[in-house]
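Dear colleague,

Thank you for sharing your sequence with our group. We've completed the structure prediction you requested, and as agreed, I am returning the results in plain text so they can be pasted directly into your records. Please verify that the sequence below matches your submission; if there's any discrepancy, let me know and we will rerun it promptly.
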Amino acid sequence: MGTASVFGLAVSTSYIFLTSLIAFWIRKFIHRILNRDTLLRSVLLEFVAAAELCASCFELAIVADNYGILAYAVYLFSLTIWWGYSWGSATACPYTHLEDVIEGRTDLRVALLICWAEIGGGLAIFRYINYLWSLEIASVHKGRANAACTADLQVHMILGALVEAGATCLCRLFSRILGDLEPKFSNYIDAFFGTSLVVAAFNYSGGYFNPVLATALKYGCEGNTTIEHFVVYWIGACLGSVAALTFYNRYVRPFTQKSKLH
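Please find the predicted structure tokens below.
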């Protein structure tokens, strides 16, 4: 890796750090002015989390394109741990609210409102990241602000949906099991497992496992129709989430709950 490459990676890293710092202080401000757990606070925090997630992943695409999948994985792993500590109850992911509706923890209208906030955060952040790219401080960003995006789906729509569904199912199931068993370093284990699945799916569907993230980064890109995008990244991921919840409640939860009693 040459000097220019090191500089480019440093710029990408500083952009990700800047994004995380801005989001951190916005969250602090929201908690300061809305010190009670209200729907408005939840909506705002989900908006911020989705914006942070998507802005960071826009830059991670630069890292992957220029420095390879290993560098991408290291950054994603680190960010996943950070998000786990800093987001609180926010998820920036629609199907977690679908799970809440199914389990009776929230109302469908509330879930839809929060999902719209997440979509809004994911789409709104593009102007911010596009401005950073337009500065072209490093060669890795040259021309990216005005470049046409291309789809990450490299396989047939049905196979892509199965990849997103299967990986989402595994991610959600694994997270629930870790939540029950509460092993030491569970956040790190969960982040490593999720990152590994993203890397495994990278050359098939892109490994998004999050409809908002996929929509913010890839909706309307060359190579995918609207139907393909919706089926793969929305239906696929949501079906995987529901499958994980069903399997967990029926087959896994009785055993993990027993183990917690002993």
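Summary note from our side: The chain has two domains: 1-147, 149-262.

Kind regards,
the structure core
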